[in-house]
Amino acid sequence: MRSLLALLLISVAMILSACGGTPAPSAAPAPSGATPAPASAPTTPLIMAWYPNESGSDLKDARDALAEVISETLNRPVEHQTTTDYIIAIEAMVNNNAHLAFFGAEGYIQANERNAAVVPLVIPSGSDGTAETAVYYSWLAVMRGQEENYQENGVYGIDNIQGKRFSFVSNNSTSGFRVPSSNIVRYFGAMEQWQGLTADDLIEGGSNSFFADVQFGGSHQGTLVNLITDRVDVASFCDTCVANYVELVAGSENAVGAVYRVIENADEPFDKYPGAEFVLIESVPVLNAPFVANGAMLSAEEIQALQEVLTSDAVAENPRIFATKEAMDAGFRPLLRKTGEDRFVVVPDSFFDPIRAMR
Fold first, then answer.
1. Are 244 and 334 in contact (CB under 8 A)?
2. Average pLDDT over residues 178-193
3. CATH of domain 2-133+288-356
């Protein structure tokens, strides 16, 4: 896992040679000038915004498990703001309409640029309990049976994605846009034909464009549906957002060439596509997504209290927050999974600089 994270940082360095490595995690201070919580704070609802990926009814119990901890810690009720578009959740934090949110690094960076009071609260660690291994994966996938079109002498590559129908998640997504678009621009931009290629050039398709057609799934689940239903030839989405709906049937987890299948009795939107199979033609590690706090709506003391409880052993061992195999076998649909020593850890804003360097 450490070698995969190193690959991510090396990739970033190729984009901006000035980019450094991931800093050691340390406490993220509340933003300077943060507004203290009003006197009514203990009884007013705390709003937590969620991206479309985590807004489905199948994840209600997982959202509620986190809300219970937050509510008990701050002695405030928690209301979930589920959304149908990334920008709705981001705008809620930017405009001080939400106290907390679960964003990818790109969404956090966008919110922080427009509202400096938005700060990282915690991130889920890697399986060894540290920030150094805290990664998930951005995939490029094609339907099974089409994978030979993206191989040369048996080796997978992305040369042949040009001119195809392609689906991103949202241009606010880290693993569903920022990382894959950056990799595509770097790879093809080195070719004479595509010198000067930018991420903006990948957003619209057409005869004179890089892609023949471009779709945005709106969520990672929606992007995989675009692929399964033949709206696109290639799709970019992440492993964690579809993990509840698919199973590995060939190859190694998160490895190029791995084959995944939609499970029987999958929740919506995959209940219509049991057995559909796809193949990974690229898999890139991405820095884990942060839970973020709004220092204009929460006091520094409240933010510190949340960090202390979320990084506690009790939360790390809560099977409804870091779901165990037993909990999942019993039907629990997880937001986060217990794969080892997984827990929440605190990181500084600079932890996300490798993603900033891709922009």
1. yes
2. 96
3. 3.40.190.10
